[in-house]
Specification:
The chain is an all-alpha fold. It has a domain of 253 residues. It starts with 9 loop residues before the first helix and ends with a helix. It is globular and about 70 Å long. Helix 4 packs parallel to helix 22, helix 7 runs antiparallel to helix 8 and helix 19 packs antiparallel against helix 24.
Length: 491
C-alpha cells in the first residue's frame, strides 16, 4: 500500500469473491458442461471489474491496476506456450499412429478390473521419472483415456486416476518445478523437503490405489471381447501399428528426463510426430491429403494443418471418430482464454491487497500449530481459486506465512510441505486454474467431473490437516545437525 491508497475493508475483500462464486455457480447451472467455453470467462471478467471499482475507491490508479493485469497475464505465458505445443503434439501423434498404438496395446494388456489402479501407477512412474504432471497427462494420459473408451470404462474415473498418479509422481520427483519452488520459498533444502513430503504423499497414494482397486473390481466394463476386437481391427485398418510409432514418446520422455525445458521438449515431440507420420503412415495420409497437390506437397500440407488444426479420421463409427480425432493448437485457444481471464482477476485482487487482508484475518484466529497449518492449506486453496495459478498458490502463501512459522519455532520443511499439500496438489481440481484448464484441454474431461475421483489430490490435504492437529511429523527448529539427522530418518 502507498500513502495515497488505503487498506481494504473485510467487505472489500469479500465482495469480489462472492460475486465470482455466485456467477460461477450460475454458469454451471445454466450452461452445464459448456460453462468453461465462455460463461466462466465472463464471470471472471465481471468479478475483476468489481475488484477494479473497489481498488479505484481505495485510491489505486487505473494505470497501476492495468499494469498489474498485464503482468499477471504475462506470468501465464509460459504455460500458454506449453498448451499450444501440447495441442500440436496430440494432433501429430494421432496422425503418426503413436496414440493409436498406445491405445491398441493398452486394450490388449490392461484388464478392466485393474485398469484404474494401473493407470494411476503408470502415470505416477512416468511423472516421477520426468518431473512433469503436464507432460504425463498429455502423453500417457491421452492414451489411457482412449483405452478407457475402448474398454467401455468411465472417462471421469480414468481422468481422476491419471491426475492422482501424475501429481503424486510430480511431487516426489526432484526434477519437478513446483517441488523445487516450494522449499526455495520456505527456506528448506530440496531433498529434506521431498523426504518430509513422503509422510503425507505415500499414505495418500496408497489409499487412492485401494479406492481405485475397489472401484475397478466392482465396476463392469461395457465392452465385450467382440467390441475390443472390433476397435483393435479398426485401429489396424487405418493406422500402421508397430513399435516404431512409439519412438516419439520415448524421445520426449528422454528429453524430459534430461531436463530439457518443457516447451521445446513438447514442440520437438510434435514436430517429430509429423516426421513419423510421413515415414510410417503413408497409406493413411494418402486418403486424407488433397490429391490435386501431389503426394509430397499434399503430405506436407496435411502435417502442417495437423499442427495448428488437429487431426480427424473417418472410421465409420462416431465413437471411434471422436476417440481418434483431436489436437491442434487451435483446440487449446479456449483454454488460453480461460487462463487469461482467471489470471487477470487474480492480478487485480492481489494488487489492491484483498488476499493480504484475508491472511491477516486468518492469522488472528490461528493460535495452535494445527490451526496455522490448516490456515496455510486453506490460503493455498483459496489462492488457487482466486489467482488461478499453482505457482502463485505456492509463492504468495509462502511469503505470507514464512515469518509466522519461524516465530513459532517450526522448521521450514513444515511450510514447504504444506505449500505442496495445499497449493500444488489441489490446482488441477479447479476448472479455471491453469492446471485444471490444462487437464480439461488435454484429457477432454471437465475437472468438475473427475473432481471426486482424484482421490490422491483430495486425500492429501485432509491427511496434512490431521497430521497437523495430531502433531505427527511436525518438526521444530533445532540446531542444524539435529534437524538434518531427524530429516534423514525414513518414514
Amino acid at each position: 500500500m502507498t500513502k495515497n491508497t488505503k487498506e481494504p475493508s473485510f467487505l472489500d475483500a469479500v465482495l469480489p469473491i462472492l460475486v465470482l462464486i455466485t456467477l460461477l455457480s450460475s454458469s454451471v447451472v445454466l450452461f452445464g458442461d459448456d460453462s468453461s467455453y465462455g460463461p466462466n470467462q465472463i464471470a471472471l471478467f465481471i468479478a475483476a471489474a468489481v475488484a477494479v471499482v473497489i481498488g479505484l475507491k481505495n485510491g489505486f490508479r487505473w494505470t497501476d491496476i492495468e499494469q498489474a493485469m498485464i503482468k499477471g497475464i504475462s506470468l501465464s505465458l509460459g504455460a500458454v506456450l506449453i498448451l499450444l505445443a501440447v495441442g500440436a503434439l496430440i494432433g501429430t501423434w494421432l496422425l503418426a499412429g503413436t496414440v493409436p498404438t498406445l491405445i491398441y496395446y493398452g486394450m490388449q494388456l490392461l484388464s478392466p478390473s485393474w485398469f484404474y489402479a494401473a493407470s494411476c501407477i503408470l502415470c505416477g512412474i512416468v511423472a516421477m521419472s520426468i518431473g512433469s504432471s503436464w507432460t504425463t497427462a498429455a502423453t500417457i494420459g491421452v492414451a489411457l483415456i482412449g483405452v478407457a473408451a475402448g474398454l467401455g470404462l468411465s472417462p471421469a474415473i480414468t481422468a481422476g486416476a491419471i491426475v492422482s498418479g501424475a501429481y503424486f509422481g510430480d511431487k516426489i520427483s526432484p526434477l519437478s518445478e513446483t517441488t523445487n519452488l516450494a522449499p526455495a520459498v520456505a527456506g528448506a533444502e530440496l531433498f529434506a523437503h521431498i523426504r518430509h513430503m513422503l509422510w503425507t504423499t505415500v499414505p495418500s497414494i496408497l489409499l487412492a490405489l485401494v479406492l481405485f482397486t475397489i472401484i475397478g473390481l466392482n465396476s463392469s466394463s461395457s465392452a465385450d471381447v467382440v467390441h475390443i476386437d472390433l476397435i483393435s481391427s479398426t485401429l489396424q485398418q487405418h493406422f500402421a501399428i508397430s513399435f516404431w510409432t512409439l519412438i516419439p514418446l520415448f524421445v520426449l520422455l528422454a528429453m524430459a528426463i534430461k531436463k530439457v525445458p518443457a516447451f521445446p521438449t513438447v514442440f520437438i515431440g510434435a514436430l517429430l510426430g509429423g516426421v513419423w507420420a510421413l515415414l510410417f503412415q503413408r497409406d493413411l495420409m494418402q486418403t486424407l491429403m488433397e490429391q490435386d497437390l501431389g503426394a509430397n506437397i499434399g503430405s506436407f500440407k496435411l502435417v502442417w494443418s495437423t499442427l495448428f488444426d488437429g487431426f480427424a479420421v473417418e472410421t465409420g463409427s462416431d465413437d471411434l471418430n471422436s476417440l481418434l480425432s483431436g489436437g491442434g493448437m487451435s483446440s487449446m485457444l479456449n483454454t488460453v482464454w480461460l487462463i487469461f481471464s482467471a489470471m487477470m482477476f487474480g492480478a487485480v485482487i492481489e494488487k489492491i491487497g484483498l488476499l493480504r487482508k484475508f491472511v491477516q484475518s486468518i492469522l488472528k484466529a490461528a493460535h495452535s500449530t494445527g490451526s496455522l497449518i490448516t490456515s496455510t492449506i486453506a490460503t493455498c486453496i483459496a489462492t488457487n481459486i482466486l489467482t488461478a495459478d499453482q505457482y502463485m498458490a505456492i509463492v504468495m502463501p509462502g511469503r505470507m506465512y514464512k515469518e509466522e512459522y519461524e516465530r513459532r519455532g517450526l522448521a521450514p520443511v513444515n511450510l514447504s510441505r504444506t505449500l505442496e499439500d495445499g497449493g500444488t496438489i489441489t490446482s488441477p481440481l479447479i476448472p479455471w486454474n491453469t492446471c485444471g484448464a490444462y487437464m480439461h484441454g488435454v484429457l477432454n474431461v471437465n475437472p468438475l467431473d473427475y473432481f471426486v475421483y482424484a482421490f490422491f489430490n483430495l486425500i492429501n490435504p485432509v491427511l496434512a490437516v490431521i497430521y497437523a492437529y495430531c502433531g505427527i511429523k511436525i518438526l521444530k527448529l533445532t540446531p542444524p545437525d539435529s534437524v538434518q539427522q531427524e530429516l534423514h530418518l525414513k518414514p
